[in-house]
Amino acid sequence: xxxxxxxxxxxxxxxxxxxxxxxxxxxxxxxxxxxxxxxxxxxxxxxxxxxxxxxxxxxxxxxxxxxxxxxxxxxxxxxxxxxxxxxxxxxxxxxxxxxxxxxxxxxxxxxxxxxxxxxxxxxxxxxxxxxxxxxxxxxxxxxxxxxxxxxxxxxxxxxxxxxxxxxxxxxxxxxxxxxxxxxxxxxxxxxxxxxxxxxxxxxxxxxxxxxxxxxxxxxxxxxxxxxxxxxxxxxxxxxxxxxxxxxxxxxxxxxxxxxxxxxxxxxxxxxxxxxxxxxxxxxxxxxxxxxxxxxxxxxxxxxxxxxxx
Length: 309
Known about the structure:
Region (Disordered): 17-36
Distance between the termini: 22 Å
InterPro entries: Amdntrnsf_FN0238
Protein name: Amidinotransferase
CATH superfamily: L-arginine/glycine Amidinotransferase, Chain A
Largest sheet: 3 strands, mixed
Pfam families: DDAH_eukar
């Protein structure tokens, strides 16, 4: 089974102070304010997180959990934005747009990766925050690890010069496109619009502004042997594109229960030809404007020895 696209291990950050982040609400149209008190919201998010990690582990996915006990990092539950890992032992650290999200980076996560996995180098782009440049990891970029393509929607969270630098270092081809929602807002992160698995891709083609670019993206996905599952804007609003293929006891597609409910029987049948849907119930966490894919920092590194949970 080809597992290059679907990692068997992830890092997740357990949020003890979860809340909607005012520093990111300006360009994240997916954010909504929870109806409960801050204390109730935080407790509910913590319970949702624990349920999600239990479901992932039951499916055979290795989950490395780190507790976030700070009060200044409301989006810490979404670690895929500040680091990524790559075949060959490479790790990247990314510059974040919102000042309070820059505090999410933590050395203990990187030290764990070095101890348990074979890490050759860590390329740190985070210093470019001082120049107000950002490239928010696998939120800003949806990576085809097999075809070596970095699909990237234009936004202030994906600086084009930084993207070129990443692609040069990590040997990806950038495919950049403009994407907007039905209100004309830029899609803030590519991974709410699009998710790439081994044998299929989830994407809302209607949100890609330029028809020629849209056709190119479909062509490149189909050339890679993937079936394109075209999502509607309403399905994107339910985070149906914010999914991640993982390798556990079998190949799974991790997504939220809300996202799975939004898919049609035909779309689910296409997914099930190569992956088993693994729905996680996280409605409170989704109020922060991200879903399951954002919660999972995939580990595409070789383990030093067999990891037992």
